[in-house]
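In this section we walk through a basic example: taking a raw amino acid sequence and producing a predicted 3D structure, encoded as discrete structure tokens. The instruction is simple. Fold the sequence below.
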Amino acid sequence: ELSMSNRYMAVAGPNTNQWWVYDNVTDEYCDPPVWVLEKLQELESVDEQEALLNTMANSDNNWINDADFRYDADELEI
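The resulting token sequence is shown next.
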């Protein structure tokens, strides 16, 4: 069973060239808000960006639950 600490996983979209968050529970991708993506761009390395997005997604953030930015993983090619 998944713990809440690893429910969300940062994923680099090969088609979209941006970061997404995969929800292991609902099988959905979440499109992070612009301010999150801008914060990631401030970091030098992809590893740092991935680590920060994982931390942000798995902490108490309201944006992760915004239904307007969630997409069925089977229907979206990121």
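Looking at the output, two observations stand out. Strands lie at 8-13, 18-23, 28-30, 70-72. DSSP finds two helices and four strands in the chain. In the next section we compare this with other chains.
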